[in-house]
Amino acid sequence: MDPVELAALLGLTELPAGLEAVEVELDRAVVVTRDEIEQPARRVVLGGGKRLRPALALGCAAAATGRDGDAVVDPDVVLGATAVELVQAGSLVHDDIMDEAGERRGVPTINAKEGPSQALLVGDFLLARAGQLAATVNQDVAGLLAAAIADLCIGQSAEVATLFDVDRSVSAYEDSIRGKTAALFRAACEIGAAAAEAPDGAVTALATYGTAFGMAFQVVDDVLDLVSTAEALGKPVGNDIREGVYSLPVLLALRGPDGAALEARLGHRPGEDEVAHALALVRGSDGVAAALDRAREFNAEAVAALSELPPGPARDGLAALPDAYLDWVLDAKAPDLVAGAATAAGR
Amino acid sequence: MDPVELAALLGLTELPAGLEAVEVELDRAVVVTRDEIEQPARRVVLGGGKRLRPALALGCAAAATGRDGDAVVDPDVVLGATAVELVQAGSLVHDDIMDEAGERRGVPTINAKEGPSQALLVGDFLLARAGQLAATVNQDVAGLLAAAIADLCIGQSAEVATLFDVDRSVSAYEDSIRGKTAALFRAACEIGAAAAEAPDGAVTALATYGTAFGMAFQVVDDVLDLVSTAEALGKPVGNDIREGVYSLPVLLALRGPDGAALEARLGHRPGEDEVAHALALVRGSDGVAAALDRAREFNAEAVAALSELPPGPARDGLAALPDAYLDWVLDAKAPDLVAGAATAAGR
Lengths: 347, 347
Description:
Two copies of one chain form a homodimer.
Chain A: H1 3-10, H2 15-29, H3 35-45, H4 52-65, H5 69-72, H6 75-98, E1 103-104, E2 107-108, H7 110-113, H8 116-137, H9 139-161, H10 170-195, H11 200-227, H12 230-233, H13 239-243, H14 248-254, H15 259-265, H16 272-283, H17 287-305, H18 313-333, H19 335-346
Antiparallel strand pairs in A: 1-2
C-alpha cells in the first residue's frame, strides 16, 4: 500500500504531499556530527517502510479538526508524524538486537553490521531525536510520545517474560501487543490530532481508534508469520515459533483438538522439523480463522470510536482503512488463505 | 558527599528537602504494571547514587531565579531534577550492556541478572519515563532533556568508535566526554533553571556552567580509574585500559618520554600484566597531573559563566561546588595522589 493508494483510501488528495514533507523531516532528523550514528540511522530510517503510522497521524489530524487537506501539510502535524516514525525506527533497531536479527528489508541490521553497542546507541538516539521533534510541537505531543515509548517497553518486556510459555493466556498476549504495537498506533493518532490542536474529545476518540487498529494490525502480522511464505514475508516463516513468541493463533490452536500434539513441539527452542510440524498443526487448526475474526472485531471497535468525530471525507477514510489494510495485507502476503476462505464461504 | 554536605556547600538549607522530594518522585516513576520492568528499574534507580545531577538542578533553580530555598522545593523543579536522574539511571543500564558489566555499586547489573533483553527494555523505559516527567513540566524542559539524551548517544558512540585507538586525539576525547557526560550535567543545570521559569540568559549561562563542570567531572573520573584503588572505586582499577577507552592522562602520557613503552601495551585487548605495566607508566608520567590541571581549567570556566547570574548565596554555592567536588572525590578515592601533590607543592 503506497502513499497514493493510502491517499485514495483516506480520501485525502494532499496525503502524498504530507508524507513527502515527513520524508524531508526524517532526512533532517538523522543529520548529526558523527558518522557512526548518522550512517546506520539513515539506513534504517530512510530504507523503506510503509509509513503507515505517519499516514495515520496525518489522516487523524484531518479527521479530528475537519481541516482536511490543510491539516495534512501543517508543519506541526508533519513534525509529530515524523516523531512517531522515528520511534518506530528506533524500536526496530532495539528489537533487532534482542532478536539477534541479521537482516531487515533485505539489508544488514545495525546489530549485524556495526555491532550491538552501536545499534543500542543508534536506537537510543532515534528515540531521543523523536522526543526532540515532539517537544518542538507542543507539551501534549511530547508527553503522548514519551508515554507511548514507555508502553512499548512494558509490552515488549511482557513478551520477553512469556517466551516459550505454552500456558500463556490470550489476555497476556493481548496485553503485550497492546503495549508493543498498539501503543504507537495510538500515539500516531493522538499526536496527529494534538499537533493540529484538535479538541480533547477528538484526541481521546482517536486514541481508541488507534489502539484497536494497532491490535488488529499485530494479530494479522502474527497470523502471517504462521501462514505466509518466506518470499512474501522477506524472512523465514515461523520465526515466532522459533523464538518462543506464542501468538493468538498458536494459543487458540493449543486449546483445540490437536493441542496436545502442538504442545509437544513447543515450550523449548525447536528444531526445524518441530517448527514445520507446529506450523502444520496451527494451519490445520481453527486458530488462524479465529484470530482473523478477532482482528475484524478490533477493526470494528476502531471504526465505532470514530462516531465521536465530525462527519466528513477524512473520517470516512479512517473508517475504511482498518479493513482495507487487513484485506490488502492478506491478499499480498497470504493469497492462498484468502482463496481458501473464499472457497469455504462459497460452500 | 551526602545531601547535607552538598547543602552546606551550596548554601541551601532546603536542599535536603528538595532531594527528598526527588526520591519520592523517583519511587513513583518506577511503578508500572509489569514486575519484569519495575523490579530491576527500582533496583537501579533507588539503589544509591550521589544524586549530584538532581542537586545541581535544584541549586541552579535557586541561583537562576534568586528564589533560593523556595525554588529548591518547587514541584516543577523537583520533577525536572527527577527526570535528569532517570536519564542517568537509564544510560547506566545501557552502558552496562555495552560493557558486559556484572556488578554496579555491589549489586548485579540488570544485564547480568535479568539478561540483556530486559536490560535494554528497562533502559529504554527509564529514558521514556524521564521524557514523560519532563513533558509534564513544560515544553522547554522536554526539549532540553531529549537533546541531552541525543548528545549522550553521540558522545558514547564517538567513544565506541575510537576504542583501542592509540592515535585518539585530545580533542576527540573532549568531544566524546562533552556528549557522554557533560551533556547531562548541562541538562541538569538548564532544566533546573527552565523548570523554575528563569530568564533565557540565566539558562544559557547555566548551560555553560554545567557543561564545563561535567567535563571536569569526567576528566577526574577518568584519572581515578587509573590511579585509585579497587577498594575505593568499588571495581577494578584500569578498566578503561582493559576496555580500550584511552582517556586524557593516557593520551598525554603517550606523548611523553615513555610514550613508546606505553604504546606497546595498548592498541589491543591487553593481558593483566600489560594492564599493570600500562598503569605504572601512566602513573609515572606527567599525564595525571596535566589532566587534573585541565579539570581545574574546566572548573574555572564553569565558575566564570556564573557572572551572568544575580549575586547571592545560591550563586556562591554553585561557584564553590566544582573545586569542592574535585577535592572531595580525590581525597576520598585517591588520598595518595593528594598527599603526593602536597609533597610536590611543598618541595
